Amino acid sequence: MKPPRRVTQQDIARAAKVNRATVSLALREHASIPVTTRARIQKLAKKLGYQPDPMLSALATYRHGRRPAGFRGTLGWLAQTTKELAWREIPHFATYLTAACERAETHGYRVEVIDLNDMGINWQRAAAVAKSRGIDGILLCPQPHAATNLEQFPWQDFAAVTFGYTMIKPKLHRIASAQYAATFRTMQELLARGYRRIGFVFNHQHDERTNHHYLAGYLTARELHDPHSDMPPCIDDSHDPAQPGFWRWFERYQPDAIITGDRHFEAVLRTRKLRAPDDIGIACPGLADTSGSMAGVCEDNHQLGLIAVDFLVSMMHRGERGVPVHAQQVLVEGLWTPGRTLRSLPND
């Protein structure tokens, strides 16, 4: 007895009285196909018992990968420069873009920057500019402020990936550093070196922009090691050496080490003639590079940029547009950097 013939996209096309390309796009939720048409074709495909052929999909992917990457189009880097956030001057963000440009070229794309403030445009106008330049895929730079709402942007017209946690609405696919894991690892490294009174000093805006992941990693590790600690995190702007708040906290709780988001924290300590690691240990779980003396976790920002483009191009190949029903997060772990701001403490 012969096995039943596999239902093909051509069979669905005949039944739906459309061409096969329309069926392919509808099954991939492509925004170019009206919602009602997509729903009708998908319902018909289910009724006919259609199932994608994984071997054909794999073959198509293989053939696509074998082709030389000729020019296919332009990806947009959507950003806004403000007084609070000059993104080009932030090493993490600049590296995202550099890596994105490199990876895009291997896929046959180039990346064009659309900076709202530089161009003097709003979000709706930015979308119109992107469309006029043939941009179907958007890489969204971290925003100047935490809890940013960008629902006014016509996401349904684009495939889009965002970096970090500054945008809370809508929920797009996200590429981010594994900040929780980085802080947990930093705590483990400090504990292994004999530090016991480990403080957490972060700018409150930095903490908020990262969705409190650094703080969460610190509190989890501390709870496991010393659940009765009396030292609260110091989360504000008062570690500015000109402000007294940090020093009041420091003098009251007498930490022997500090985890900080400020990679220039040694300068703060020097205002009181304190040196790391002789007087106190310091480490940063969010280093942009390993060029300085600070110990901590170096975020792999180059890898984030590469992954973001791979993810975005894959979305475009699938015809995926708009706000996803189930947003995905890709977290990239950094690498521990010993630096010169920690030492091994003698055992009591």
Summed up:
Keywords: DNA-binding, Transcription, Transcription regulation. The chain has 348 residues and is an alpha/beta fold.
Stated plainly, the CATH topology of the largest domain is called Rossmann fold
The quaternary organization reads as single chain
Structural class: alpha/beta
Strand order of the largest sheet: 2-1-3-5-7-13
Shape: elongated
- Number of separate domains: 3
The rounded Rg comes to 25 Å
CATH class of the largest domain reads Alpha Beta
Architecture (CATH level 2) name of the largest domain:
3-Layer(aba) Sandwich
Report the count of strand segments. Answer: 14
Helix content: 25-40%
- On the 0-100 scale, what is the average pLDDT? 90
- Bin the strand percentage: 15-25%
Pfam families: LacI, Peripla_BP_3
Protein name: LacI family transcriptional regulator
Keywords: DNA-binding, Transcription, Transcription regulation
Organism: Rariglobus hedericola
